[in-house]
Structure to design on (462 residues):
């Protein structure tokens, strides 16, 4: 999706005019009042689509760049993302701060549509649709703020710096909430959204009731609310089962929606084609799968390996043989939709939560069930203690969720360092170990945001 395809385009904040030291109460000429932009339910729907339109894949690309998920091959001479990959990060780094702008623009659009939804005239027959739209908007607002927390919270724990929670479109100088206060608002929005969403609505390019359960499960994981993580992941699993081994490769070619809760439609280059981040159709690998990751797989029997990675030893001299093909599509390169939530993740969330509650049998069952669905000839593993299971869950998340925007955040959830193997660090200028004590372990807020808002606080160390 691309915002240029839609009728209404909104600014993040309304403009104001100052002349001769006197503030003038003028309506900006480049904005449209919500009451005029939204006249009926069709307009509301266009506004919702416009909010979805600005969502991108910066979480996926940024976590690949800063973690041990990819390596920088010599053939990449584009310069794109290289400073970020080398952890040369600060608030002026447009790559690492892109998720900040992307999500707040989406939130602003959501809030404008919500404001219009409160005053628009509807018929009695439109009430159920109005409720669904409200639920979708509240869920989308919760999702965007949660992505901001994942990217920009100073830590994932009580007392840490969270983010500003935008509940209306307005000019102001807001302050960052604490991590726990931000999470409370996220949970309030997603909880309010859920009963408004009909089970019959099943468009996977938008947030559905099943997707809400999946979002709640991931939120609970970051909050370390293990009971809720089990509850919501179980809800999600009951609605959408795991893909079969035959179905799984087709997910990444957009030939199957098996186990997908929610995806971002990618149709043109303007939508931000995720595959293009890893591999260009001119036969250039920009970022290759890390050898550290590749060595985790049973490369013969694990269907995930051949679905995610291609090894081509005929690429030519000076070319790395390893290519990320997860988003390559089927007939036209780099056109696969971005899968935001899948059932595979839900099994891993539930396994981790079970392990944290010392429910070793239940955690083992979840982990073995997932592996059996992915690996031909898999034999169940026996686990004896909590640490063993959690270590295995993290190793499985590294494989299952590769190139889906989780690895760096997973390490942060456990305060684990990013450790790159020597063969993955040939072009990193020595950037092989990133610890929780390093400033770059938490992403910075954009410098521009701090310059215009005296109440905004930067993450420590920048």
């Amino acid at each position: 999706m691309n915002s240029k395809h839609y009728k209404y385009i909104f600014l993040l904040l309304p403009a104001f005019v100052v002349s001769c030291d006197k503030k003038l109460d003028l309506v900006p000429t480049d904005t449209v009042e919500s009451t005029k932009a939204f006249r009926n339910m069709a307009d509301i729907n266009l506004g919702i689509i416009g909010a979805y339109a600005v969502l991108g894949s910066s979480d996926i690309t940024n976590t690949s760049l800063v973690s041990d998920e990819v390596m920088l091959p010599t053939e990449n001479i584009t310069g794109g993302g290289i400073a970020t990959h080398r952890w040369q990060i600060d608030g002026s780094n447009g790559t690492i701060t892109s998720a900040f702008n992307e999500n707040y623009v989406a939130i602003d659009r959501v809030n404008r549509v919500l404001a219009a939804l409160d005053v628009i005239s509807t018929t009695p027959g439109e009430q159920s649709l109005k409720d669904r739209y409200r639920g979708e908007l509240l869920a989308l607002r919760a999702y965007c703020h949660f992505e901001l927390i994942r990217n920009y919270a100073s830590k994932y724990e009580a007392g840490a710096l969270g983010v500003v929670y935008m509940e209306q479109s307005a000019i102001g100088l807001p302050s960052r909430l604490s991590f726990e206060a931000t999470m409370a608002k996220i949970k309030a929005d997603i909880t309010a959204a859920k009963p408004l969403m009909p089970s019959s609505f099943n468009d996977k390019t938008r947030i559905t009731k099943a997707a809400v359960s999946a979002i709640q499960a991931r939120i609970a994981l970051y909050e370390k609310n293990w009971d809720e993580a089990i509850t919501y992941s179980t809800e999600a699993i009951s609605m959408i089962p795991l893909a079969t081994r035959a179905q799984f490769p087709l997910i990444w070619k957009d030939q199957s929606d098996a186990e997908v809760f929610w995806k971002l439609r990618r149709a043109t280059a303007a939508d931000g084609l995720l595959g293009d981040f890893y591999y260009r159709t001119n036969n250039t690998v920009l970022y290759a799968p890390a050898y550290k990751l590749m060595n985790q797989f049973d490369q013969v029997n694990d269907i995930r390996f051949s679905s995610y990675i291609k090894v081509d030893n005929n690429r030519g001299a000076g070319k790395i043989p390893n290519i990320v093909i997860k988003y390559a599509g089927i007939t036209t390169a780099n056109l696969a939709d971005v899968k935001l939530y899948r059932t595979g993740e839900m099994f891993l969330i539930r396994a981790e939560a079970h392990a944290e509650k010392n429910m070793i049998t239940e955690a083992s069952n979840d982990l073995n069930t997932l592996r059996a669905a992915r690996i031909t000839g898999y034999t169940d593993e026996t686990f004896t203690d909590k640490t063993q299971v959690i270590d295995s869950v993290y190793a499985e998340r590294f494989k299952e969720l590769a190139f889906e925007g989780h690895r760096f955040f997973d390490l942060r959830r456990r305060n684990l360092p990013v450790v790159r193997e020597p063969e993955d660090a040939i072009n990193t200028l020595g950037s092989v170990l990133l610890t929780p004590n390093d400033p770059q372990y938490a992403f910075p807020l954009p410098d521009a945001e701090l310059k215009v808002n005296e109440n905004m606080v930067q993450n420590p160390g920048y």
